[in-house]
Amino acid sequence: MKITLILVGKTNDRLYAEGIDDYAKRINHYMPFNIKVIPDIKNSKSLNEEQQKTKEGELILKSIEDKSHVVLLDEHGKEMRSIELADWLGRKQAVTKHLIFVIGGPYGFSKAVYDRADDKLSLSRLTFSHQMVRLILAEQVYRACTIMKNEPYHHE
Q: How far is CA 97 from CA 24, 31, 46, 105, 143, in A?
């Protein structure tokens, strides 16, 4: 199985970008992992929230292959402990060729993107910046990989 992380807008903070790159390299030791950045919408200040979500949604949907399993990072998604995420990822690995995680823009996702999603995942009931969520998700995917291989990175 390969994993793609789709992001709306580039990671601006150098420290987050370096951390994300580090975890991406680590994950690639276990399975193919890449990051696809959807560029920020030009002239977004002239658009209302719905218009911006619609334009971002169109670009997100163009980046998704038909048979991919799509997981949105969403505040209303399912919360899991790291061990549960590892178990879930292991089960997906057995039946899915391409798993796509999507972190949306500042206003969330369009209805079309929600309609295409197979799952929704929440990292916490706390609110994090979009930049931080990218790093947290990358670390949790890496942690899940090490749990599946019974490696010592994760401690109970």
A: 18, 11, 39, 26, 20
- CA 145, 141, 65 angle in degrees (round to 5)? 110
Task: Report residue 7: phi and psi, to 5°.
Answer: -120, 140
Locate tokens 């420290």: which residue? 15
Per-residue pLDDT tens for 4-50? 999 999 999 999 999 999 999 999 999 999 999 999 887 777 889 99
DSSP string, 80-141: --HHHHHHHHHHHHHH-SEEEEEE-BTTB--HHHHHH-SEEEES-SS---HHHHHHHHHHHH
Quote the pTM value: 0.94
CB 98 within 8 A of CB 69: yes
Triad 47, 51, 57: Cα angle to 5°:
130
93-137 pLDDT, tens digit each: 999 999 999 999 989 999 999 999 999 999 999 999 989 999 999
d(CA 38, CA 105): 10
